[in-house]
Amino acid sequence: MARAGRGETHPLPHAGEGAQSSGVGHDLRGLAAPVEPGPPRPCEDYRWEWKHCRGLRHAFHHYYAHGELPACDRWRDDYEACRAWERGRAAAAQEALCKSERARVMEKQKYPPVWTFRKSPPPDWYIPLDQDKPS
Predict the structure, then answer these.
(1) Are 40 and 97 in contact (CB under 8 A)?
(2) Per the domain annotation, does 30 fall within a domain?
(3) φ, ψ dihedrals at 55, nearest 5°
(4) Residue 76 in contact with residue 108, Cβ under 8 Å?
(5) pLDDT of residue 134
(6) Please, what is the Cα angle at 58 between 43 and 53, to 5 degrees?
(7) Neighbours of 38 (CB within 10 A)
(8) DSSP readout, the chain?
(9) pLDDT for position 47
(10) Distance of CA 57 to CAs 50, 61, 68, 78, Å?
(11) What is the pLDDT along the chain (135 residues), one digit of tens a residue?
(12) Spatial CB neighbours of 76, under 8 Å, sequence gap ≥ 6
């Protein structure tokens, strides 16, 4: 789904719709003006994450894996801040949403990968496995 407002540009209005010429022979109709950036993610993403977090299957899995029920308030707060940002360009909502996204990224970077990635395959990768031989 294409979404406007994420660093994309839109053309200026055409002549007769408010476009002006600078008077020096430059026509501004072909230029593009930057659009004010939108939220880091579409608001529907925050709503889906909040809805998923509240689901019974996710709650059961999270309780099984972590021993506690998931905290879904963060997704709800992010969804509400995103809606406020889209509705009225509220600076407080923008700051809260960006702060939450930064915290989410930092939380992911806190833990190193479990497996070490290898640079090349093992030297004997082409040798057949001994699966056919009886032990």
Answers:
(1) yes
(2) no
(3) -65, 150
(4) no
(5) 64
(6) 25
(7) 19
(8) ---SSSS-EEEPPPTTTT--B-SSS-BGGG-EEEPPP--SS-HHHHHHHHHHHHSHHHHHHHHHHHSS----HHHHHHHHHHHHHHHH--HHHHHHHHHHHHHHHHHHHTS--SSPPPSS--TTTTSPPS-SS--
(9) 95
(10) 13, 6, 14, 22
(11) 444 444 443 333 333 334 443 344 444 444 443 445 677 889 999 999 999 999 999 999 999 999 999 999 999 999 999 999 889 888 888 899 999 999 999 988 888 888 888 999 988 888 888 776 666
(12) 50
Total residues belonging to the chain? 135
Closest CA to 46 of 16, 76, 91, 10: 76
Number of domains present in the structure of the chain: 1
Buried/exposed 102-117: b ≥16 CB within 10 Å, e otherwise: eeeeeeeeeeeeeeee
CA angle 21, 27, 31 (to 5 degrees): 115
- Residue 124: inside a domain: no
What is the residue-averaged pLDDT of the chain?
76
Task: Indicate whether 54 belongs to any domain.
Answer: yes
Domain assignment present for residue 21? The answer is: no
Structural domain containing residue 104: 37-109
pLDDT at 66: 92
